[in-house]
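Re: zinc ion structure - here you go.
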Amino acid sequence: ERVFSPMAKSAILERIAKGEQSILLLNRRGFSTSLICPDCGYVPKCPNCDVSLTYHRVGDELRCHWCDYKTPAPDVCPNCGSENFKYRGKGTQKIEIQLYDFVEPERVLRIDSDAIERKGSLNRILEKFASKRGSVLVGTQMVAKGHDYPNVTLVVVIDADVGMAMPDFRAGEKTFQLLSQVAGRAGRGERHGRVIIQTRHPDKPAVQFAVKNAYKEFFAHSIARRRELDYPPFSRLIRIVAKSQNSQLAENTLRKILRELLKEKLSGIFPLSPTEPPIAKLKGEYRWHLLIKAKDIRNILPFLRRVARAKFKNVKVRIDIDPYDMM
Ligand SMILES: [Zn+2]
Ligand SMILES: [Zn+2]
């Protein structure tokens, strides 16, 4: 699998020759179980939620982390028939190996998870880059935010499809936001800047509208889709998360809450099934979540207040209304 298109490669080399700088953006916020066909870019989605399914090696199945939909993972890509469907290489490593094929390693600055965790390390790298040491900066989202590098005249988004495959109904919107942000990174100085977006879906609205800098049009597109699927703001989304050392206990707590909710027969309140969120274990605790769509949130507020006040043994329960983070 080729990481850099010939266009991106020659653009990077051109910048180095002119003494200008490039940013290579990885858009992979550490989510590894999204499945993307390496050949055609197809991403399997839940038929109920329009959210990407994630791949689980155990059971060889695809799962929706919103409504608990499950289906056996196909062996070949349903879209193009590729047999590479389920096999993915090591992202970051592959990028480096291919980059060092045409750029000397000492020209490359890299922001990895190490650099982020070590105190002060991230800033040191960014300062180094700002003072023009290093021709190429490789990193995630955070290089897209805020910093001003007048000598940067090229931004390459290495794989825009990764973001669009996130298990979140706002995956397209988050991708649009990222692409719009990076578009502002190149050419802050007097020189003209260029952005190269590598994608297998140049026709996707998130890409098309970002390229045209068409915020209003993208908004119109997104809001229509949300209306169709009854997502916020046309309903409110409630997420109840249960955390426990014991996964079964977290699950049972949500099932009990769901049973109580159904007994109330509230109008315009549509709960999905409890399921594990994309990140099923965090800091030693197992997590389950229950999503509820509410046409009129007032109908469910008294119930939510009771849940918030209830004591659950060895389980922590948290309620989020219209959560931004669905992981
Ligand atoms: Zn395919
Ligand atoms: Zn679903």
